[in-house]
């Protein structure tokens, strides 16, 4: 082995060892790297209840209720569990029923999540409105043909 | 005809070669940039959810990809320089860093401008955004460390260590949206899946990606030429260039 090849081997081994260390560290910190908890995790008490934390999921269809002023009540769902949320403030433009949302706040005694910040989480699909409409109609048609 | 590639590992001959290549890549970059921006702003349709605001993707995604890709290339050349003691490789790494840092900053900045209207916040500490910010610090750390050491050969070695250690951050950035819950959405374009974007949007974005590639190559070659001149200023070939009035 030439000295420079030895050097290359040492460098490669060094980077590999660091990579392995990084994997272990990231695994250990797994739960701290989570930006939000799902409603299922909250119900299962995996979230830091009693402290400020974030819930993420979809805004349940038909659950949005606008109250006095800028107070809004809605439900966040991950399709298996649902958490009621109350928020006072301005919602982001992309806040819509059936779309992704991340709320930060605290659970109160009744199990309602009192949010002090609501962020919209959009997906990775980009298409013109006509295409979105066509997809929606195709889905409806498929549903209709399934129920017949 | 066999080309002796090792010839171009010598700074003197690479200096001439790079000088010939710069205008070529610069012209392609300008052409692609105009085409890409035209497609992005005038041809591509508006988005069903985000309306016109999504158009920042034509800058944001190419910048973010380049920021990661350039880091890998920088670490590669720095590592080669460290292992084989080849001067030109280390000069390449030094030349790549500012462009990489520029693209990282662009990705963070455009992302922030995009996040405010769409997510409702300029910044969140989710895994994707945080790891990209660390990338910016790595670039800045690499550049400041090299600038702080007077002896260029020692600066190359020290910089190479930072560059190689930091390479671990690249898969973390890339896979952060899959490994953890993040506010940032998943990838629209990936190797394993069909893109989830309308065709004209994708075309515009890819043209902008190639424009960034060409721009990066042109600027990095230009910069490496300056670095070669600086470091080889004591040699006869640079003295000859000076006599000819070519500098």
Automatic annotation (TrEMBL), chain A:
The keyword DNA damage does not apply. The keyword DNA repair does not apply. Residues 1-7 are cytoplasmic. Residues 29-148 are extracellular. GO terms for cellular component: plasma membrane. Keywords: Cell membrane, Cytochrome c-type biogenesis, Heme, Iron, Membrane, Metal-binding, Signal-anchor, Transmembrane, Transmembrane helix. GO terms for biological process: cytochrome complex assembly; protein-heme linkage. Pfam families: CcmE (PF03100). GO terms for molecular function: heme binding; metal ion binding. It is a single-pass type II membrane protein. Heme binds at residues 122, 126. It is found in: Cell inner membrane; Cell membrane. Its main location: membrane. Heme chaperone required for the biogenesis of c-type cytochromes. Transiently binds heme delivered by CcmC and transfers the heme to apo-cytochromes in a process facilitated by CcmF and CcmH. NCBIfam families: PRK13254.1-1, PRK13254.1-3, PRK13254.1-5. Belongs to the CcmE/CycJ family. This is Cytochrome c-type biogenesis protein CcmE. It comes from Nitrosomonas marina.
From TrEMBL, chain B:
The chain crosses the membrane at residues 21-43, 63-84, 91-109, 129-149, 158-177, 197-221. Keywords: Cell inner membrane, Cell membrane, Cytochrome c-type biogenesis, Membrane, Transmembrane, Transmembrane helix, Transport. InterPro entries: Cyt_c_assembly, Cyt_c_biogenesis_CcmC, Cyt_c_biogenesis_CcsA/CcmC. GO terms for biological process: cytochrome complex assembly. Pfam families: Cytochrom_C_asm. It is found in: Cell inner membrane; Membrane. Residues 8-184 form the Cytochrome c assembly protein domain. GO terms for cellular component: plasma membrane. Required for the export of heme to the periplasm for the biogenesis of c-type cytochromes. PANTHER family: CYTOCHROME B_B6 PROTEIN-RELATED, HEME EXPORTER PROTEIN C. Belongs to the CcmC/CycZ/HelC family. This is Heme exporter protein C. It comes from Nitrosomonas marina. The gene is ccmC.
